């Protein structure tokens, strides 16, 4: 069966002043696949996914999402593509002045203009059930632990029913047990919603658990690619340094 690329990046380059962050990066994400991108800080991981959704403008290259080159789109066309993509930010990015219910409702209303209050409530509860936190519906972000905030951020991402989810350091700042719970949640989301994902992480346990395939960026260049077990056996000392 032919695999279908839902994301295809060709020769992506991006510089900030004299700092060449990405140098001719090529990658694909197939439908239903979780691709992990590893790399040291400053290697270009987050810039890659920001170029993908047009938050950062690429200097050169082609970025095909749903067979459409996003580098050539006007703002309104780009917003149509973005409406099919969920973005889970590193810090969770919840609105502190809103309850969990209000955070999710705000996102849904912004995304879906004509939606009844009954439908909003139904979708909020379904999204919270997916992350195991339906009891937190009336809590404020300040009342939540770090792991709970990550789960609510994921629920807010899921409520728009995205086809692609971009995870930026989903387990950062969490203890190892909570990190594993978030990694397992990423897997269950992939199975339940048939999402395709890019997961940016430093966390090797998260990479091992979630990644169907792993790419390692080194100073803006894809240095290695393979499954966790393939890369773990690499004879390349720099690649092996991630697995120590």
TrEMBL record:
Domain ABC transporter per the UniProt entry, residue ranges: 7-244
SUPFAM superfamilies assigned: P-loop containing nucleoside triphosphate hydrolases
PANTHER family: INTERMEMBRANE PHOSPHOLIPID TRANSPORT SYSTEM ATP-BINDING PROTEIN MLAF (PTHR43023:SF6), PROTEIN TRIGALACTOSYLDIACYLGLYCEROL 3, CHLOROPLASTIC (PTHR43023)
Record GO terms (molecular function): ATP binding; ATP hydrolysis activity
Species of origin: Flavobacterium terrigena
Name of this protein: Phospholipid/cholesterol/gamma-HCH transport system ATP-binding protein
UniProtKB keywords: ATP-binding, Nucleotide-binding, Transport
Domain of life assignment: Bacteria
Any Pfam family matching the protein: ABC_tran
